TrEMBL record:
Keywords: Chloroplast, Fatty acid biosynthesis, Fatty acid metabolism, Hydrolase, Lipid biosynthesis, Lipid metabolism, Plastid, Transit peptide. Residues 256-324 form the Acyl-ACP thioesterase-like C-terminal domain. This is Acyl-[acyl-carrier-protein] hydrolase. Residues 96-230 form the Acyl-ACP thioesterase N-terminal hotdog domain. The keyword Lipid biosynthesis applies. Gene3D superfamilies: Hotdog Thioesterase. It is found in: Plastid, Chloroplast.
Amino acid sequence: MASVPHRLPFSTHFSGCKSGQQSNKQRLYCVKINGTNSFAPAKVDLLSQDHETAVTSVDASATVHMFEQQVRQNIPTKKQLVDPYRQGVIVEEGVGYRQTVVIRSYEVGPDKTATIESILNLLQETALNHVWMSGLLGDGFGATHGMMRNNLIWVVSRMQVQVDHYPIWGEVMEIDTWVGASGKNGMRRDWLLRSQATGLVFARATSTWVMMNQQTRRLSKMPDEVRAEISPWFIEKQAIKEESPEKIYKLDDSARYVHSDLKPKRSDLDMNHHVNNVKYVRWMLETIPDEFLENHQLADLILEYRRECGIADVVQSLCEPQEDGLIKTGIQQCNHIGLNGHSSLSSEILGGNGLLGSLDQGPFSYTHLLRIRESPKMKK
């Protein structure tokens, strides 16, 4: 994370078919992407009912906090097997988690299928709910009680998502998630998304997480008490097997597509006061030409996170097509008709055996880099 200052590398892989429901969709893998201060407590003067008593100053933030604790559902302190509110259950012999979700109208795009950002948000939500069900959750963003005592938070260092089919609006899905060890100081989390009705696998994902000190913003070793908390939940199971992780090369100023002056908004921040990782994906995809995105869907995404991004940072997004990775042989014909009644690919693709001339139209994968732009003051 600290090895590449001011850089957030990523890598995307696109398939040639736009349909999320196509059983024989050809997937082309050619690309790689490397990858607050709170308000001061307000003081409120409250008049006593007894007029002879002096006016007192009360910490409004403390009062609001006490009120919230009274009206909100308390975080479980013991392991829960069933959560009817989130439609979640503990599986995998007591250590895995399964949640039933329905794709909402605000989670789909123009083609009525879930966006990649919606899928990533669902991965994050089910991961946090898994910790909630474990009884280990403090009041932080997925942090355990031991992590809270050591002032530690989780940060993702690498993530890979493979999408076979995109769920449509109204689709009922089951999302399984579980955790395992990753080296001495990291944790691996995996997910499997499938149709509740048919068992069809929509997507699978894996990620690596490390701990950061919330005050110093530096990576930290895993304390023994935290290891003792989470290690009973570890299982030997992988949604995506990586024999040797793909190396993502860094882009420079010669990249073909560049978007500059991207500024985070307050709505982009998460509970750890840094830009949420899903926002990075949106910045990345915005550099890809619209005409390409209209005829293709993301099939494989690899993200590497090198450092965090804050509210005051200005980000530059670089994108480079990977033309040398095209697969030009052995590609099956894609005959899917899109939800709007029109072909989801160009007529050149559907006009003969295979992709024909469409392969010469452009690349099917892109390498991306997000980097924080230094201000003139910082350069001095």
